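# nightly structure sweep
# worker-07 picked up a monomer target from the shared queue
# config: single-sequence mode, recycle default, output format = structure tokens
# input follows
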Amino acid sequence: MHIDLPDKRYYKIGEVAKAFNVNTSLIRFWENEFDVLKPKKNKKGNRLFTPEDLQNLKLIYFLVKEKGFTLEGAKNKLKENPDEVFSKHKIIQRLEEVKNELIAIKNQL
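# output follows
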């Protein structure tokens, strides 16, 4: 999954939800369920997500929405070997990018 957000230090929850095409309530729910999500909060209590939080959200989205893991299964997977999950996710993302590039080249021929 490729999210299209500009490079910033912090992202509001609405921006994050729109990028992932989910409701803000799901982002807040995942924040409560997964210990790796720790968005900062401003004085008003608004959540501000860092790029690191976005990477963790990508992993959670990948495991839950794309791979079909249950929340408990995704939690266990992230706890037992987060580096393996992250590297596999990066490889899958890169392969999808290459596939899209090849399809674009094929369509131009």
